[in-house]
Design brief:
Rossmann fold; alpha/beta; 7 helices
């Protein structure tokens, strides 16, 4: 049985307030859920975020990590300006977001709680060797891109870790297809569900 920290609600609300002015596409209930996951997931390892954009979820995760001494959040994003829109829609190019991302971390005073990896996730994965307790996938929403992120980083999930995908119930093929095919059809994962458009599941390979 997981015992929730007594101050978890106030710390999640403080993290949400910290991220309020950061542009992004996550609803408040999604951000609260991410904050709760960062605080209570019963596993060892790093919190890894694939796809940071301007830092909205990063600030929430890092605020919670700072409060509970969970180490740095690993934020992976090339900040190259490419935006994938969805099924049958061509990608569009936006301005690179790196300077705005750094400004968001600075304004929220969480720079020291984030390990910034300005690179494509496949390049980071090539040298990755750490266990992961929370894997937050919000990068390339195409099926090949999302599947690649899952394939490259899921082998490092610790027992009891949680994996979560953003935009699983929006007009994107990748997140929901990977969630159904690789997680719901697998016997390596246990409790699963949705919070708004976040699909999540707990990694429990020893309880097959």
């Amino acid at each position: 049985m997981i015992r929730l920290p007594e101050d978890i609600n106030q710390n999640i609300e403080a993290a949400l307030k910290n991220a309020h002015s950061v542009p992004g596409f996550l609803a408040d209930n999604e951000l609260r859920f991410l904050g709760a996951l960062a605080a209570i997931v019963p596993a060892l390892g790093a919190v890894v975020e694939i796809g940071s954009f301007k830092g909205k979820s990063t600030v929430v995760l890092a605020s919670i990590a700072a409060r509970y001494g969970l180490g740095q959040v690993v934020a992976i994003d090339p900040h190259a300006g490419l935006s994938y829109l969805g099924n049958h829609v061509a990608p569009v190019y936006q301005n690179p977001t790196f300077s705005e991302f750094l400004a968001s971390l600075k304004a929220a005073r969480v720079e020291e709680n984030v390990e910034v990896r300005r690179d494509f996730s496949r390049n980071v994965a090539a040298e990755w060797n750490r266990p992961i307790r929370l894997l937050w996938i919000d990068g390339d929403h195409s099926y090949p891109g999302c599947k690649q992120d899952f394939d490259l980083f899921s082998p490092y999930l610790s027992e009891g870790a949680v994996i979560a995908f953003h935009d699983s119930l929006n007009a994107f093929e990748g997140p929901i297809r990977v969630f159904v095919e690789e997680i719901l059809r697998s016997d390596r994962f246990g409790p699963s569900g949705f919070v708004h458009s976040i699909a999540w599941s707990q990694y429990r390979p020893s309880r097959r």
